[in-house]
Amino acid sequence: MWRPYGPLCSRKPGGWRLRPELLLITQDGSPTLVHPRFQEAYSSRYGAWTQANVLYLGLTQTHAHPAPRVLEVGFGLGMNFRATLDSCLRRGVPLDYLGYEAFPVEAGVLGWVEAPLTEEAARVWAEVRVGWAAAPEPLILEGPWGRLEVRFEDVTRASFPQGWASAIYLDPFSPAVNPEPWGLSVLRSLYHAAAPGAYLATYSVAGRLRRGLAAVGFEVRKVPGVGKKAWTLARRPLA
Ligand SMILES: C[S@@+](CC[C@H](N)C(=O)[O-])C[C@H]1O[C@@H](n2cnc3c(N)ncnc32)[C@H](O)[C@@H]1O
Questions:
Q1: Distance in Å from the first CA to the final CA of the chain
Q2: Is there an atom of ligand 1 within 6 Å of 180 CB?
Q3: Whose CA is nearest to atom 17 of ligand 1?
Q4: Where are the alpha helices (DSSP H) in the chain?
Q5: What is the C-alpha to C-alpha distance for residues 220 and 19, in angstroms, rounded to an integer?
Q6: Which CATH architecture describes the domain 47-235?
Q7: What is the β-pairing status of strands 146-151 and 95-100?
Q8: Is the CB of 79 under 6 A from ligand 1?
Q9: Which residues pair with 223 in a beta bridge?
């Protein structure tokens, strides 16, 4: 298994410095990284790019939304952001994306994890990587494509915009190794951050999580994921 901490990563003022040895090629050919502290991959081993597109975008209907406002818990390596940006640019719709990230990697690490982006999306992503150097101040980027804000905060202490999100990507590491962002108080805050009718998608199907989502008001379903894995899809009711 991966060694915790050790020479494979170290905490620097500019973020977590991971080593390229931690790079993993997922089943659809797109790369991800294994985090040596949490000992988990940032994206699904079935396919990082597939997971972002089919599950986060697809399940939350973000791929068809005329002006998505996405709230993400765990911005990580920006794979989900890039897939969402790419989709919006291809469709010519504006994107408003708010990501939370408590343990940002160093800006250079973001460059290792490539995604098949259009030229325009790749240009925006290059700007994100330049702006990333400014962490821990929030990263705010605006352009004709829309807006990205990444708050380098622990989501358990965050205050989200109310009734704002058309989609929520709940994507921390698993509840077994990273329980805090899955707690009831975060789920309740996410419910209030969701616009009526908004979807929340996550790869965890833990019973405790699904009961928690239902307890704070979401309608909750278990749906097929990529490979054999099931996913959780929750929706804030319209009224
Ligand atoms: C599975 S990875 C996310 C991958 C990411 N969505 C992507 O598309 O690349 C989980 C992320 O959640 C972050 N995280 C863990 N606990 C957190 C917390 N309490 N608040 C905010 N982010 C957290 C981790 O640092 C990590 O970057």
A1: 47
A2: yes
A3: 102
A4: 48-50, 79-91, 107-110, 119-132, 184-193, 207-216
A5: 38
A6: 3-Layer(aba) Sandwich (3.40)
A7: parallel
A8: yes
A9: 231
